[in-house]
Design a protein that fits this description.
Shape of chain B: globular
Shape of chain A: flat
Number of helices of chain A: 13
Helix content of chain A: over 70%
Helix content of chain B: over 70%
Strand content of chain A: under 5%
Order of helices and strands of chain A: HHEEHHHHHHHHHHH
Oligomer: heterodimer
Strand order of the largest sheet of chain A: 1-2
Radius of gyration of chain B: 23 Å
Number of strands of chain A: 2
Number of strands of chain B: 0
Strand content of chain B: under 5%
Largest sheet of chain A: 2 strands, antiparallel
Distance between the termini of chain B: 14 Å
Distance between the termini of chain A: 31 Å
Chain lengths: 297, 269
């Protein structure tokens, strides 16, 4: 900043700040470039560049003795993915798990977000929203390990307390992933509800609608962008996870675990399989762009 | 708002259940950090402070904590600057590629961490960078920018443009208006977004695995290594409990900063 004090007295400031400011005012394009230059360069060079390099790597292949990478362009990794049905199965299973996790999170998040945003107020509201956020700061790994101790069977907490437990496997994995990403769903829905004027709910009930009707026909449609915003997190995080899968998924194989397992041995193949969630997520994001969900992330 | 008693009971009950679900695994960790047995077995056998004492003297944990703090601080600092610049540009200008820029900034958190991690790893390798603290900070900053960007855009939407116009009408130039009018109005959003970005970086493990190199250990990586080694598990539960307890402060602070809208921010609430 060029100016350090507010000019007093007769007002019109002068000096380098003023003239630079005047010049910038006449050159809006320069102003725009000054603002956008650094962040745009960072994202294009580093991020889009990295994704491009990921894609490029996915077209390479291991050399014959597997000791290095031949930088020859070809589609052989993608052909493997299509030809061997096991990879299609893994991709479909991963998407199915991500969808189920997202649905569980929506069902769990709606009542608690509604309760916090609309039913309680003041100190209670602040306490409750803080108690939703604190688990986000607790280590992801520790939570996943804790679940390992909970659902393991025999000998887990659930098994010892109630005698039943899902044990490690797909069901356990869905529960744990839904647990891990739940706050990412609650927060956008809560924010959406906070923006939703109470008068709309009053109007609906004044017009004779009972609560369930108001919730379904007024609240849910207006919350749609927030729910979609939350689903971007829960869906994407589930799509790429391999650590929780390793800890509580039993023998379940997902995209993340295949990518991780191949990362050191066959990077080009790992890169090719990593392109699959990119395609799924980009399609998802393009599909929801019109809903206004991205502004709610 | 007023709701029928039945509705309040129902939603209150469900809220209680979800909170119990959220806190059960955390409670187990806290309890096990005082357990006399050196594994994550249930039920606990007895009470001891032994693990808390060992954790205090664990140099591995302390070094890892330091690396995590450095990384999170560096990434947050970069994200603050770049997020603010991008938010200012998108808020004030309609330009070609605005939607694309928006999408690009959102992409690192919309794509799974393993994709971001492997992509950055491939790029760093091809560019001939050695993996280390610098590449780690760059990688973390890339997914932290969106947090600041979204927080600031949300604040901009609530701010009245009249304030900046009034400042200009009163003779202030662009930089004075930014410094004395816009920046103070953004300050709490910057702080809240900064805290969130810091937390995001602090707990990140997937991108970290692929961009930190072999010699560098952040706290999550240290936790991962030691959770797999049985005899260190109780010390990890202590570290996790301590981090959880400390995290109450930033969560509460960020909450106060964004909900306490002053009279100037007005808006729709």
């Amino acid at each position: 900043m060029t100016a350090t004090t507010i000019p007093s007295g007769s007002g019109i400031p002068s000096g380098p700040g003023k003239s630079a400011s005047r010049w910038l005012h006449r050159h809006p394009r320069t102003r725009l470039i000054a603002l956008i230059g650094a962040p745009a360069t960072w994202m294009i060079v580093l991020y889009i560049g990295s994704l491009a390099s990921l894609f490029l790597t996915s077209l390479y292949r291991l050399n014959d003795d597997g000791s290095g990478i031949d930088k020859v362009i070809g589609t052989q990794n993608y052909r493997t993915l299509i030809d061997q049905s096991v990879y299609l199965d893994i991709a479909l299973r991963t998407v199915k798990i991500a969808v189920l996790v997202t649905l569980v999170d929506i069902v769990l998040a709606l009542p608690i977000a509604f309760f916090i945003a609309k039913v309680v107020g003041g100190l209670w509201r602040r306490l409750l929203i803080a108690s939703v956020l604190v688990p986000l700061w607790a280590s992801y790994l520790v939570k996943a390990f804790s679940w390992r101790a909970i659902i393991g069977s025999p000998g887990g907490v659930l098994d010892k307390t109630f005698g039943v437990s899902p044990n490690y496997g797909e069901v356990g994995l869905i529960i744990v992933l839904a647990y891990l990403w739940l706050p990412y769903m609650i927060v956008p829905i809560y924010a959406g509800l906070e923006r939703l004027p109470d008068s709309l709910l009053d109007a609906s009930s004044d017009l004779g609608a009972h609560f369930g009707f108001t919730f379904r026909r007024v609240v849910l449609p207006l919350l749609f962008p927030s729910i979609v915003a939350g689903s971007v997190f829960t869906f994407s995080l589930s799509l790429g996870d391999y650590i929780a899968v390793d800890l509580v998924g039993g023998k379940t194989q997902v995209i993340g675990s295949v990518v991780y397992d191949n990362f050191s041995a066959d990077l080009p193949f790992a890169a090719a399989f990593a392109v699959v969630p990119v395609i799924v997520m980009v399609a998802y994001i393009l599909g929801i762009r019109r809903s206004g969900a991205l502004e709610n992330l | 708002m007023h709701f029928p008693r039945r509705v309040r009971m129902l939603f209150g009950g469900m809220t209680g259940l979800v909170l119990a679900f959220l806190y059960l695994p955390l409670a187990i960790i806290v309890v096990l950090s005082f357990n006399t047995v050196s594994s994550l077995s249930w039920p606990p056998k007895g009470f001891t402070l032994h693990w808390w004492q060992s954790a205090m003297h664990s140099t591995g944990a302390r070094d890892a904590l330091l690396v995590s703090l450095k990384t999170a601080a560096g990434a947050t600092a970069i994200a603050l600057v770049l997020g603010l610049l991008a938010a200012l540009a998108v808020h004030r200008f309609k330009f070609f590629g605005r939607e694309t820029l928006n999408l690009m900034i959102v992409l690192p958190i919309a794509l799974p961490g393993i994709v971001t991690g492997i992509a950055l790893n491939a790029a760093f390798r091809q560019a001939g960078f050695d993996l280390g603290l610098l590449t780690l900070i760059i990688a973390h900053a890339t997914f932290c920018i969106v947090v600041l960007y979204n927080n600031l855009l949300a604040r901009f939407r609530r701010l009245s443009p009249n304030l900046e116009e009034a400042s200009a009408d009163l003779g202030a130039h662009t930089f004075q208006t930014f410094r004395y009018v816009t920046f103070p109005l953004l300050r709490t959003a910057l702080l809240a977004g900064g805290l969130l970005a810091f937390g995001l970086s602090f707990d990140e493990i997937v991108v970290t695995t692929f961009t930190s190199g072999a010699g560098l250990e952040t706290l999550p990586i240290w936790i991962f290594k030691n959770l797999s080694r049985g005899d260190q598990q109780p010390i990890v539960t202590v570290v996790a409990t301590a981090v959880m307890l400390l995290s109450v402060i930033p969560v509460w602070l960020a909450q106060r900063l964004t909900s306490g809208d002053g009279p100037l921010t007005g808006g729709t609430r």
